[in-house]
Design brief:
The complex is a heterodimer of chains A (114) and B (112).
Chain A (H helix, E strand, L loop, with lengths): L3 E4 L2 E4 L5 E7 L5 E7 L5 E9 L2 E4 L6 E3 L9 E3 L8 E8 L9 E2 L3 E5 L1
Parallel strand pairs in A: 2-11
Antiparallel strand pairs in A: 1-3, 3-8, 4-5, 4-9, 5-6, 7-8, 9-10, 9-11
Chain B lengths: L2 E3 L3 E5 L4 E8 L3 E9 L6 E6 L3 E5 L2 E6 L4 E6 L8 E10 L4 E5 L3 E6 L1
Parallel strand pairs in B: 2-11
Antiparallel strand pairs in B: 1-3, 3-8, 4-5, 4-9, 6-7, 7-8, 9-10, 9-11
The chains are: A mainly beta (114), B mainly beta (112).
């Protein structure tokens, strides 16, 4: 199993550009999550999904959109990039919602907006 | 709101024992995770506590007191490779399932 994979690893965007961060998992997990991590800070939840076709906002959803058309894929879309979106983005997945909801993280995407 | 507090940084000596504390004020608490994150890498799971008490896992142990809103991670026989950030995360109920709310992390530096 590859686990959770993310592409690209690094990206530099200009203000106002758009891009999609890709995330895929091959563990047949129902739950998937997008976090951002700013320097010296914990992870903040952007969006999450409990299954194909079902998504909901987390703590910091503004400026982002998601979709979940398959169990495996959970892309994150930035429509109009802003410098405040410079961060490291982690995708994660987990098997169940309750109990030991251990989340498995991808390697991250380092995004800089100039 | 949700609030999770951890010390920002700690330094300890190779071979020693270190305790990293975490306090939280949250609603809808389900359990508490500890994750390890090396610089430039993704977080990896260390431990999970849902009931009061101590969970031991090799050199690492984690303790939880739900009534006090308090947890700690205990690392024994410290090794240089234990230098990392340690993230405390509380699992809370959401409309669908539950979510993790992370503290800012404690950077542990192990010196020889």
């Amino acid at each position: 199993n590859a686990g959770v994979t993310q592409t690209p690893k690094f990206r530099i965007l200009k203000i106002g550009q758009s891009m999609t961060l890709q995330c895929a998992q091959d563990m047949n997990h129902n739950y998937m999550y997008w976090y951002r991590q700013d320097p010296g800070m914990g992870l903040k939840l952007i969006y999450y999904s409990v299954g194909a076709g079902i998504t909901d906002k987390g703590e910091v959803p503004n400026g982002y959109n998601v979709s979940r058309s398959t169990t495996e894929d959970f892309p994150l879309r930035l429509e109009l990039a802003a410098p405040s979106q410079t961060s490291v983005y982690f995708c994660a997945s987990s098997l169940v919602a309750g109990g030991l909801n251990e989340q498995f993280f991808g390697p991250g995407t380092r995004l800089t907006v100039l | 709101g949700q609030n999770i507090d951890q010390p920002t940084e700690m330094t300890a000596t190779e071979g020693a024992i270190v305790q990293i504390n975490c306090t939280y004020q949250t609603s809808g608490f389900n359990g508490l995770f500890w994750y390890q994150q090396h610089a430039g890498e993704a977080p990896t799971f260390l431990s999970y506590n849902v009931l009061d008490g101590l969970e031991e896992k090799g050199r690492f142990s984690s303790f939880l007191s739900r009534s006090k809103g308090y947890s700690y991670l205990l690392l024994k026989e410290l090794q240089m490779k234990d230098s990392a950030s340690y993230l405390c995360a509380v699992t809370l109920d959401m409309e669908y399932g539950n979510k993790l709310v992370f503290g800012a992390g404690t950077i542990l530096r192990v010196k020889s």
